[in-house]
Amino acid sequence: MATTIGIFEREGQVLDAVERIRSSAGTAKSLRIIVKNGENAPLLAGHAEAPVEEVAGVQGTLTRSDDMDAGFAGEDAGIAAAAWVAPLQGGGSSGNASALPVLGLLRWNRDDADIGGTLKQMGIPPHAVRSCAEAVDEGKFVLVAEGGSIERNDALFRQAGAVDVLY
Asked: Residue 162 in 3-state DSSP?
């Protein structure tokens, strides 16, 4: 089954594309919308014609099911870290080597997880992952159409204002 992917800058454009696809004969059999976070897409979240899939939600689910995690941190997680660093000979005040303490915080943020890897798991074709990941990370909207004529889907996406169409 052919997949056509449209990248849009505004929610209204996505809704227009969904309407055009649904009202046109011989186009996609299924549609889905991919966004970084559903809270930033209130118009799309309430739209029944095409389900909205949130990358952040999928990443959170993957994190919670990760066997290597001892638990799940909804916000930034971190751990205090300390290390002793010894400079070269002659680094101390009397010309002797001295060890310097280095204190810091090792921090990771689950929101910064690999968007491309998540999109692969969401079924985005490998050749389109990079473009879609960049678009989603920038807050753009991705509309995925499965089936139908690629040429027809492309034309309808562009009429609705797609900034890029991948297939």
From this structure: coil
Domain count, the chain: 2
Q: Distance (Å, rounded) from C-alpha 55 to C-alpha 64?
A: 14
Answer whether 0.85 is exceeded by the pTM: no
- Cα separation, 113 vs 111, in Å, equals 5
d(CA 144, CA 142): 6
**Among all chains, which residue has been given the structure tokens 């099911």?**
65
Backbone angles phi, psi at 18, to 5 degrees: -60, -45
DSSP element (H, E) containing 104: strand 100-108
At 46 the pLDDT is 79
Whether 142 is in a domain gets the answer yes
